[in-house]
Amino acid sequence: MAFLSSVVLSAVPARADDLRIAMPNWPSGQATAYILKVAIEKEFGQPSLVEEIGTLNAFAGLEKGTVDIHPEVWQPNLDDVIKKFVTDKGVVTLAKPTVPAWQGICATPAAAEKGLKTIADLSEPEKTKLLDTDGDGKGEMWIGAPAWSSTGIERVRANSYGYAKTMTLVEAEEEVAMAGIDAAVATDQPVVFACYAPHFVFDLHKIVRLSEPPHDAAKWSLVSAIDPMWIKKSKASTAWDAANFRIAYATAFGKKHPDIAAFLDKVDLTPDEATAMSYALEVERQAPLGYAKAWVEKNAARVDGWAKP
Predict the structure, then answer these.
(1) pTM reported for the whole predicted model
(2) Maximum distance among all alpha carbons in the chain?
(3) Is the peptide bond before 288 cis (omega within 30 degrees of 0)?
(4) Which of 254, 105, 89, 212 is nearest to 167 (CA)?
(5) 225 pLDDT band (50/70/90 cuts)?
(6) Separation of alpha carbons 45 and 55, rounded Å
């Protein structure tokens, strides 16, 4: 899906006055990027271009002025990036509304029924061999897409908890991983994988979240990803802290277009809406732009309210 979007976008010539929206490679972020494009063009007559850009490159673009908006910035995943660009440099502004979220490790019903119910179970070879699909004696577990900040943190968690020794940690695009989950549930195969909410997978399947020790900040120490050895130097041996995500925009852009910045500060999407977005794009295979146009039309009064002074 992300690949198709980039192909389409590459054929659209950029104009000097285009507002540039960075699009991440997960479905709710893709949908929100296009909803912002359609809504901003409707309310302000401002031409907007959506471009698929990784989050770290997007933040660099927000600083340089080559990106104006990022639709879905996650915390605590990007705390070090936020500290650098928002707190220290002040070149990026986070919009006020947040969408509550959570992250962790989940199991298919078959995995839970066979005893994989807690994070500690992943360190027990007798249990994780149930997840072995290639015959090497170790289970396999998807931990996220290669470009996600959470993927590296899941490696840290695997090292800290100890299951990096009993599990092969797999990185792949979300679309591929979710197709694997669908197949596993359909064939009653045990699978454990990194998960987050809001997400459509919980509407499709009876997914079980593995229990973990409650988040303890004292047991989390994440070195900046700028350090090439950051994963080995970091630790995280309890559950994730409570998460959220929100829109970010370039501070300079906000000063140049205070009306649009004020609009972004009112975009109050909900977890249920984020789930519906991901379901529409990844399960129903709706095109992001078409979905966004229908969404803005359906929510016209609400969008008009966001644009009012």
Answers:
(1) 0.88
(2) 62
(3) no
(4) 105
(5) confident
(6) 27
Q: How confident is the model at residue 41 (pLDDT cuts 50, 70, 90)?
A: very high
Distance of CA 129 to the CA centre of its chain: 29
Residue 184: which H helix or E strand, with range?
Answer: helix 174-186
Strands of the chain, DSSP E: 19-23, 48-52, 69-75, 92-94, 99-107, 139-144, 167-171, 192-197, 208-209, 220-221, 235-236, 243-250
User: Do residues 247 and 70 touch, judged by C-beta distance below 8 A?
Assistant: yes
What tokens appear for 11 in the block? 């054929």
Kindly state the tokens that stand for 166. 């009993």
Residues in the chain: 309
Distance, CA of 125 to CA of 140 (rounded, Å)? 12
CB atoms within 10 A of CB 133: 13
Tell me which residue of 294, 246, 224 sits closest to 69, measured CA to CA: 246
DSSP string, 214-236: PP-GGGEEPPPTTSTTHHHH-EE
